[in-house]
Batch of 2 targets.
Target 1
Amino acid sequence: MNFMCYECGDMLEEKNMKSLPNGTVYCPKCFEEFSEDEEKNIIEKVYEAMSTDSDGNGKQAEILENEYLSASVDQQKAIDRVFIAFCGWSLKTLIEGHEATELYNPYK
């Protein structure tokens, strides 16, 4: 019986395949790459996704700022909490360009 690699589409014999508990099948090469990716923490994954985006950081920044500014106050607070966890700064602080001593606290 042959299986197809989920990532590259190569056909594999059962003896050559690697599979996850959920049944997803990979060839040895793709499985190794997948395993390396799984070892990265979420911040590394976000950074890598952002740094390899073909749209460029300028467009990402514009979209992010527009989404934030059009969000409700509660949504902005949630976004700020995520940014504080991610980089130590709220998105509001980053948008407004405040100095570190003026760090915005969305919980006030």
Note: The longest helix spans residues 73-87.
Target 2
Amino acid sequence: MAHDLGDHVAAERLTREQIRAGDTRQLSSAPFVSLGIAAEERGDLDQAESLHTKALERARRAKSRLGVAVALGNIGNNALARGDRDNAAKSFRESLSLAQELGDPEGIAIGLSNLALVAHWDRDEETALRRYREAFDTARSVGFTGGIIWSALGVAAVEVEDDASTATRLLGAADALLSETGRVLGHQERRLQAEVKQHAQERLPATAFRAAWAEGRRIGAVTLLSETLRA
């Protein structure tokens, strides 16, 4: 799942200046992760793939399993953006496995959410919901709000065709948590959010959509996900 983004243009400029100022052979993978994400935000998937691959190479050279896990997740996101779900799932599984070995709950929640999204695009909604349930439980156990937000958006995507009201409540709840925490969605999450919102608005009268959105903001993501995933 994508990392939080602030002013990615300024971040990219700063990172390039840091690279120019130092010996790139000694760099960690982190600057290339930042540049790769910035390239994705511009829609330059080829450049992003190259940068994420460099991040992976440097993480492996430094024997940083966390760095490898992050790079693999980003490579998976890039593949998913290209529509290559098989390679995306492969990278996501490797990233998740490393996060599990490291005992990194945030990385585990991200990996599970990423695999859930692949299952959703594959129309395997049963697997998607199972993965989102696991991701939500993991994220909630450590108070990882990013994982809770991504789970809410993902479950909304699964639910919207059969239950647009529930999907809209989940969107509203995610929006409230985004506002509360100051988190910013990555490009994959923004795409998913926009698609689910459009589908919900096509299925609900405007007044019903606004009411469900407001109700979701009031109830909150944790309560709604707990109810929806155990229904």
Note: Residues 1-14 have pLDDT under 50 and may be disordered.
